[in-house]
Specification:
The chain contains 22 helices and two strands. With 440 residues, it is mainly alpha-helical. The chain is globular and about 75 Å long.
Amino acid sequence: MNKFMKWVEDKLVPPMAKIGNQRHLLAIRNGVVSTLSLILIGTFFMVFVNLPVPAWKAALAPYTEMIVMPYRVTLGLMAIYATFVMGSDLAKSYKLDGVTGGILSLGAFFMLQMPTNILTPKKAPMGYVLPMSSLGASGMFTGILSMIVAVEIYRFFQSHNITIKMPDQVPPAVARSFEALIPSAVIMTLFWLIRDVAKIDVNSLLLDLFHPLTNILGNNLLGALLPMFLIHILWSFGIHGMSIVGSVVRPIWLIMLDDNAKALASGTAATKLPYIAPEQFYQWTVTIGGAGATVVVAALFLIVCKSKFLKEVGRFSIVPGIFNINEPMIFGAPMMLNPYMFIPFNVVPLVLTTISYFAVKLGLVNGFTSLQAWTLPAPIGGYLSAGNDWRMIILILVNLAVATIIYFPFVKAYDKHMLDVEQNGDDTKDGATDAASANA
């Protein structure tokens, strides 16, 4: 075990830490996260019209399209919001103007969409519309590509001083517009040639490219296990696993959630949705109370441990854990770099993922169709996110029981060690617990 932990710490952690700080991945993460407040509101309306009460659905049927409009302009347009923020964030990381970076990225993104004239006969330009199917989660990959290309072109011209300089007396906003004129011309011309002249549907190409990966992550057990394995290995060594892995796979998770919601809205049964494992699958059934389902560890520390230190950690961790905030446990116990907790912290998510995967796959519970506030207690969040399915509450309680059983012997062993430290001052049994001893 010690050799394995040393290998991970020496070989795996350093490159993953660098990846976590990579500017393009940070921009993607920030762009996606920036849309969550809108998506939360939008998905509420989708849940509202899909309450599992036939009489309710029948009563709302004539008004369904009107009621779900906030959903269509939030999750349905999320690629627009995210592309602007991603471009702004990436430009700022290069110490360029953030607004210009966002605008250029958004312009490039729109140039890759193909407007359709819906009038008969065709009367340009009044009849042109943009299809919403490529402006939501399905357009995220196009937004990411547009953001990277646009900002990198902008940076090239700025770094080589190929810009139109205005006198100092010109207002800054006007000066920035002229400075971006040359890169804007290059970006818009390039993307016009790709989409309108060459007729290359970049959005469809990217979706086709990532479709196998989406199926692997969303409907394959090994694919569903992989994100949990990587996230928790990184957390075990003090690196925020979700910030790294989430930056890569969250756009794919959003596509899964969007497709599930569309399928539900079109009449697909909630137990027959296209994807098993969008992000909400993990959020509500696996990482209950935070990474590693550590809310059960806080409860065990309080109930079964005799160590004063562990009881205190349990006391200040249990309430945040109920609301899915587990940094007090991660850094207080600590869970990271702790040989007593390493095995259960990494095994529990894999076991819970497997149980939940088959529960959804076999139709024992609904699939996930909406995004809920991540601070909700898991039974409530899972119930709402799975279309108000009471069976999801039972699944979550079963998973909590399983996690408790797995953690129990390791918590007892850790408690025995910490008692030795407290009673005898013996902190030499395992150097990885020195941090915990110092806090005790």
